[in-house]
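Q: I'm building a small set of examples for a reading group on sequence design. Run inverse folding on the following structure and report the sequence directly after it, with nothing in between.
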């Protein structure tokens, strides 16, 4: 019985033993296939658009916010760390297969449409949050009262 269990464990570990990390070149090809740099920028732009709709005086600070992004949040500044994230979830072989998919017709369409889908989805979430802001304020008020009665929370003066 022990020999069978050992054999099963060895067989199950074989694929993992053959897995290798994706190379920088494979990841850069993947990022190119999915147009990551443009998608990343679109995400930042979407974040700015959401701020414009949810922060009344944001227009006064938009240029400062954009300057900060251009200085500290460029794709080049984060690419290496993003590569490590992908390496933690995908093997080199999987990255190659993903790249092949994204270079296909449907993969290319998905890549083009994803920033728009993401932006619209984020806007839906933001609108839903704004719509129910009063409910959140009431829930927080009730929680504060409870915490005050329990002596856990004291408002700052």
């Amino acid at each position: 019985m022990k020999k069978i269990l050992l054999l099963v464990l060895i067989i199950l570990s074989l694929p993992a033993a053959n897995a290798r990390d994706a190379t920088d070149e494979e990841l850069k090809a993947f990022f190119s296939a999915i147009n990551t740099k443009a998608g990343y920028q679109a995400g930042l732009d979407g974040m700015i658009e959401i701020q414009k709709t949810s922060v009344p005086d944001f227009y006064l600070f938009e240029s400062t916010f954009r300057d900060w992004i251009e200085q500290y949040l460029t794709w080049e500044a984060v690419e290496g760390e993003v590569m490590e994230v992908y390496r933690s979830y995908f093997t080199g072989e999987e990255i190659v297969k993903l790249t092949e998919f994204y270079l296909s017709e449907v993969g290319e369409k998905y890549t083009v449409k994803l920033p728009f889908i993401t932006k619209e989805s984020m806007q839906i979430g933001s609108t839903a949050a704004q719509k129910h802001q009063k409910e959140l304020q009431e829930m927080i008020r009730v929680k504060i009262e409870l915490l005050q009665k329990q002596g856990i929370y004291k408002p700052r003066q």
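Confidence is low (pLDDT under 50) at residues 5-17.
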